[in-house]
């Protein structure tokens, strides 16, 4: 076996992927890239009813957008035969058994156990069934589910984030790996794939810790080598509230549509929950260099989507006109004004979507904001606007003429003029703004 590092991101295509998934994808991606290894995109689509092609496409589009390029794609739905072979092996070694309890029966058993103060672990009643009893149950209820018989011993591993983890095999129910209708479940498929694809490192959410315990035993039963595991903490909202229900609104697709820059998202997610500060980074090589999974802690990690805005704003400030020329042209900004438009707006936007508002203001004019006491002053000043093209000196020339004529100075001079022309009390340098004010110019 080679010592090449191989990781995978294994989403189920049953919905749009969100920031929680991104944390998993990013960590696996960075581990592979840092080691010069391989990053596999594995589509966990053994559930034909819930898996949708549009989500597969969505996952690829999201990863592409973020620049998390995969070396190859695998699809579990194309590998079903492999899983059946593994199931056969497990059967032959006496580690796989058919069980026929209905969900109601299982529920009842759990309740009884809990009432008696016992952990609700499957009691393995099916192991005692004779062949004749199984035939009878099968005739009555259809095929049973297939459970993997866990060894009732401690399962231990050194987790890349959680440190030493130990799970008592006796405290976990024998996992169902094949459903009554024959559907292969994720646990079996995942073990077979991780083993066969030579996956060396698995990073996933801490909701998978128990799965890892059972998967280690299945891997060992099938003679596969056990990868290194790391389980990152789950994300919570800014107040520590569970995020699971809200993750639907934090889909990567929605963040993209809201104008969040991928660099902002990567900067936040590659550091959030670690002992290193969040810093804006723009090159993938910087994310790769700076990544160290041992810096991440096991405590729940607070995520606030608002944090993506200042990071996006700062990223936009690093862009040159060339980088945004297409966006600016699409707004209808004449090429002669493009450079000035970008230099005036770049520090006054949160996302590129904000450019539209600025251009509308410059090209169509703003609703003037004029205080009562400035009304006359503004009316007078407007009559003094120079004719012809506005340039960089227009503001200085005009305001000094207005100063001369009205005796106003400082804030009392500049602020009402700014508000009258732009509708806002704050904003870019007025000397640079003047040449962009199409309507004002036309009025002058
Ligand atoms: N399809 C599984 C999930 O989305 C993959 C978990 C794993 O990484 O093994 O939760």
Distance between the termini: 78 Å
Average pLDDT works out at 95
Total separate domains: 3
What is the C-alpha radius of gyration, as a whole number of Å?
Answer: 31 Å
Shape: elongated
CATH superfamily of the largest domain: HUPs
| CATH topology annotation of the largest domain | Rossmann fold
- Which molecules are bound in this entry? glutamic acid
Strand content: 5-15%
User: What is the count of helical runs?
Assistant: 19
**Highest-level CATH class of the largest domain:** Alpha Beta
- Order of adjacent strands in the largest pleated sheet: 1-2-3
Count the beta strands.
12
The percent of residues in helical segments reads: 40-55%
Largest sheet: 3 strands, parallel
Q: Which structural category do the helix and sheet elements fall into?
A: alpha/beta
- The poorly predicted ranges are none
Instruction: Please name the CATH architecture of the largest domain.
Output: 3-Layer(aba) Sandwich
Provide a descriptive summary of the structure in words.
By secondary structure, this protein is α/β, with parallel strands linked by helices. 45% of the residues lie in helices and 11% in strands. The chain has helices at 19-34, 53-66, 80-92, 103-115, 131-141, 186-196, 209-221, 252-257, 262-269, 284-289, 308-317, 321-330, 335-345, 354-364, 375-383, 394-406, 410-422, 430-433, 438-443; strands at residues 6-9, 38-43, 72-75, 96-99, 145-148, 154-159, 163-168, 176-178, 201-205, 228-232, 235-236, 301-302. The strands form five sheets. The protein has a three-stranded parallel beta sheet with strand order 1-2-3, with helices on one face. A three-stranded antiparallel beta sheet has the order 4-5-8. Helix 6 packs across helix 7 (209-221) and helix 9 (262-269) crosses helix 11. The longest helix has 16 residues, at 19-34. It is elongated, with a radius of gyration of 31 Å. The structure holds glutamic acid.
């Amino acid at each position: 076996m080679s010592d090449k590092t191989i990781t995978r991101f294994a989403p189920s295509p049953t919905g749009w992927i969100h920031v929680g998934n991104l944390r998993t994808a990013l960590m696996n991606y960075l581990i592979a890239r840092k080691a010069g290894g391989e990053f596999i995109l594995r589509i966990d689509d053994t559930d034909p009813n819930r898996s949708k092609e549009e989500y597969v496409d969505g996952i690829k589009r999201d990863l592409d957008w973020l620049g998390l390029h995969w070396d190859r794609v695998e699809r579990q739905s194309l590998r079903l035969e492999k899983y059946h072979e593994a199931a056969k092996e497990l059967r032959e070694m006496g580690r796989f058994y058919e069980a026929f309890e209905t969900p109601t029966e299982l529920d009842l058993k759990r309740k009884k156990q809990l009432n008696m103060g016992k952990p609700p672990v499957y009691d393995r009643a099916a192991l005692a069934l004779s062949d004749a009893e199984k035939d009878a149950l099968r005739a009555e209820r259809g095929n049973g589910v297939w459970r993997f018989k866990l060894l009732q011993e401690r399962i231990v591993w050194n987790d890349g984030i959680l440190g030493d983890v130990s799970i008592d095999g006796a405290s976990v129910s024998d996992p169902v790996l094949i459903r009554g209708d024959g559907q292969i479940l994720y646990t079996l498929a995942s073990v077979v794939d991780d083993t066969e694809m030579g996956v060396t490192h698995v990073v996933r959410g801490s909701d998978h810790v128990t799965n890892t315990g059972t998967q280690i035993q299945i891997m060992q039963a099938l003679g596969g080598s056990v990868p290194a595991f790391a389980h990152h903490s789950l994300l919570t909202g800014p107040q520590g509230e569970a995020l699971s229900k809200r993750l639907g609104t934090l889909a990567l697709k929605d963040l993209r549509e809201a104008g969040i820059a991928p660099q902002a998202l990567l900067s936040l997610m590659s550091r959030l929950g670690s002992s290193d500060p969040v810093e804006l980074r723009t090159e993938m090589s910087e994310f790769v260099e700076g990544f160290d999974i041992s810096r991440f802690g096991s405590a729940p990690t607070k995520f606030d989507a608002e944090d993506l805005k200042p990071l996006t704003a700062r990223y936009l400030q690093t862009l040159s006109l060339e980088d945004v020329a297409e966006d600016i042209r699409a707004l209808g900004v004449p090429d002669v004004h493009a450079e000035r438009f970008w230099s005036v707006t770049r520090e006054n936007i949160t996302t590129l979507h904000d450019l539209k508002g600025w251009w509308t203001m410059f090209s169509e004019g703003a609703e003037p904001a004029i205080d009562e006491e400035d009304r006359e002053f503004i009316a007078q000043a407007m009559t003094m606007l120079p004719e012809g093209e506005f340039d960089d000196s227009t503001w200085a020339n005009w305001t000094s003429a207005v100063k001369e004529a009205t005796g106003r100075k400082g804030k009392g001079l500049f602020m009402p003029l700014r508000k009258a022309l732009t509708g806002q009390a704050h904003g870019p340098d007025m000397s640079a703004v003047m040449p962009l004010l199409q309507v004002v110019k036309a009025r002058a």
